[in-house]
Amino acid sequence: MDEASSSKTMNSSISEMSTQRMISMQRDLTAAVTNIQTAADARESTRRKELQEARQRRLELLEDNARSSQNKAEEIFEALSSMKEKVIPQELQEALNTQQNICTLVLEDKDKLINDLQKELKVSDDRFVKDLRRMAEELDLMKERMEDQIKTLTEAYREEMSGVERFCLQEIEVLVTKDKSEWENHMKELWDQELERLEQRKEKVGEYETKIHHLMLDNMDKESIIKIEQDANFQALDVENQKMKASTMLMNLQQIKQKNNVDVHNFNLSQMYERISSLQMEIKKLVTKFSNQAKYLRDTSHHLKKDYKRILEQHERVQKKIKHFAVADAGRFKEMWRMVEAEVTLLVEKALAIDSEICVKHLGLAWDQPVLPFRELPGSIRPKQQTNTDLHPQLAQTQQALQCSGGAEDTSDGASSEAETTAGDQEGSDAGLEEETLVAVSHLLCDATGLIQESLLMLLSPLEEDVQMAMKLGSSLYALGLADKDFPKLAHFLLKYRQEQSEDVSGELSASSDQEEALIINPNQVLIALKGFLQQHKGSRENSDQSQSSVLQTELRDSSADRVYWESLSNIITEDKVRLWEAAEESLQQHLVVLTEISELDIEKESLEQENTELRLLLQQSLSL
Amino acid sequence: MAPALSAREKEPPGSGPKGPDDCRRLRRIIAEDPLWSLALVPSLSHLCLKSFVRDFEGLTVYEQLSNTEREFIQERLPPSLPLSVTANVIEDGVYWKRCCKQQWDLCDVSRYGDSWKRMFFERCLEGVIELFIPGVTEPKKILEMVPLCENYVKRLDISQLLTPIREPKKEEEEEDNVLGLENDDEYDGPQMNHFDFSILLEKLICLEELHVAYRVKQCGLNYEGRMFEMNYKDCVSLAKALKSCKTLKLLRLHQSNIDDMKVQILVKQLLGHPSLKELDFSHNVIGDVGAGAVAKLLTKSKLEVLNMCDNEITDPGAKAIAQALSKNSTLVSLNLRLNRLGDEGGRAIAEALMNNITLRHLHLGANEVTGPTAIALAKVIAQNNTLKSINLSCNNLGEDGGKALEEAMSHNTSVTECDIRLSEVDEQIVSSINQVVWTNQGLGQKG
């Protein structure tokens, strides 16, 4: 420590010394510089003092000079004033001379003064120049000194720095070596101590190890004993614990189950609620849909009603039209009929005239006029209300045909009576159409016609008879293309047919035969009868359609009746007559040929006669000549 | 951009782009070029900044840039840019350093508060004023500078002021001059005015220091007495200007041939100036009346430094100053070197210092004071503890004065400078005084 403090003090003393040295150096150098300035100042002040003194001297000199010259000037003026009094020229001359002398003296004096001043000026000029030069020199010197100062100071500082550095380094080295040795000593001591301690520790560790071993063994024994006891206890506790656990588990399970049930119920309930709500929604939807649909349907029905009305109107209009057209057509038809009939009657009359001529003139026979049916029925277009009353127009037609083709016989009354009887028959049969006959007819149809398919029969076999019957009848009717309502008609027809047949075959004899037997027609004839019925049915249906369509038609025309009528007209000239007419034509032809020859010869003869007359004339002329 | 272009140029000329495939190939070639380096590609921001530098006048985004970007720009902007563009945009920094270095060889930025911008503008303005020729140069030229530099100019050190150019007929007038001075004065006065500071100073809102010397440098054989003096009108205009400049702290009017009347005019306007701290009328011809005016100023302002060295003050002036000094409590430094106070003046000042506790520096060098003043000052030194430096060099103090000073100094611990060179004092006394001063210096350093 003492050494350190001493070094410190040494250090500080050195630094102090160096700083003092530096300060003194600085002072000296700055003094060297400022000395010049102060010297200049001093010189300046002395110069000024001198200048002032010189000025004062100069002023005094000038004053003296001025005073002396003043005196002299006064002398001169006095002399001048005294000169005026002088009369003698010599005196005057003298005075003038003296005056002049004095003047020259004054002038000389002035000149001298001027010279002096000029000299002084020159001197001061020189001095000024010298001063300037010296000042410049001094400035240069100052600069030099300042530079020197800077240089020397920097050098000094550098030296000092290096010295201090060196010193410090040495010091540091010394200290470092000292510290190192000290450190090493300390370390050595420390190591020794450490080693000792380590050995002691080792010994102690050995001791402790043996102690610990013993303790461990003891403890092991004790521990094993305790362990066994504890095991036993533990097992007992374990058993108890498990029991407890089981019971708690059961409790828990029950709780959980309850909870679960509640949850499930809640869940179901919520689902139901949801479903209800969804269904309600659906219902609402459906209600809206229904209302929409109803509205739509109402609208459509309204539209359709309108359409229907419109169509009805249209229909009425069409019917009116049809009626109108029908009336018009009937009118036209009547006209046409009359016209054609007139034409035909004309032709017939013509033909009959020709026939009569041929008969009378050619053959020389007596001609008897044939019966003309149309003359009896001049407008064959006559109302046919009577036929309309008939349910079976066919019969009426046949009757008409018979009427038409009846010839001369007057059968109209008979026919009408017959028609009336048939009608009455029919009515009677209609009324008498009992169930029995119907059943019989159905049996007949079913058994005989074979209209029913085998498969159907097979299917029907297990059923009751009545039912079977009904089914068979239905199917057969279907096969025939008839409706159920046509069935009674069919039965009626069949009955009538048999009557006709029996009339045809056996006349009135079998007509009164037992109905029971007669009902069962010969099965062989059934098919033919059916065919006839079907044709008739078809026609009747057409007629019924026609009649329905022309309910309002006033007259019912039948082309078949007309046809007979027209045929009768066309056959007014019979075959025989035609043959006769042919023969007559032949003979007439021959006659014509002869006649033509005659006519030709006649022409020849005429020409010859003319020639003859001409020749006679010529002869006469010639003769005359 | 440049590296990319060069890389492209290095390729064979036939491999120009002919479609998308070719473009891809081209790119591949660039990538395989061993000379190609992505580091050479300047970043877009660099390119932008470069273009910004090229076209600085037209852009106004400088304020939005970061500091590094600004430095980048400052290092590259040409110093030839017009000041109207750069003055109020670019802050103090590298750009102004470059401008200064380009214009002047010697650039001691420490004199300008380490601000290159301030240095640039101050020196610019000084240059313009120093070359201002009244009647020839238009004042507009200076006034144009004002809005650019008003925020940066703190000091104006004007070392010369030119006079108007003389016309050839001046020679005749000079003949008249010989005949009648007064007439000439009246006639010549307005023409011989120097630069009128009143138009400038009130606009420089930061101006703190003003150094003016009414003289012409390097006039050569065109020398005229008028060139080296401040005439009456100059004085009036300057006084007005000084009054208008509220921020001024230091005024230095040296080597301008200022006489008592001009000092009176100036002081009249400076009375009650709010900020003036330093006044320097050194190297003029101020007499006792001027000294009296300055003394009045001392009582009515906060002057801290007064330098009246190399004037013509004698004992009445010194007495006036001493009277002011005894009342003043702000003045720190008083320099009356190279005057002619004489013993009476010296004694008056010493007596004033007995009551003053603020003055620290007193310079009475080369003042024709002698022993009595030294004895009086010795009393002050013995008593006063604020005085730090005393300069009595170049005065004939004599043995008695030296002894008195030595004795006084032995009791003093505050004076760190005492200059009594060339004052006819014993070497021993000088050395003993120096010893005391040095110890005091040591004390001061330690304290």
From TrEMBL, chain B:
Main location (coarse class): cytoplasm
GO CC annotation terms, alphabetical: cytoskeleton
Keywords assigned by UniProt, alphabetized: Cytoplasm, Cytoskeleton
Coiled coil: none
Annotated stretches, region: Disordered: 1-23
Subcellular location: Cytoplasm, Cytoskeleton
SMART domains linked: LRR_RI
Keyword Iron in annotation: no
Protein name: T-complex-associated-testis-expressed 1
Protein source organism: Pleuronectes platessa (European plaice)
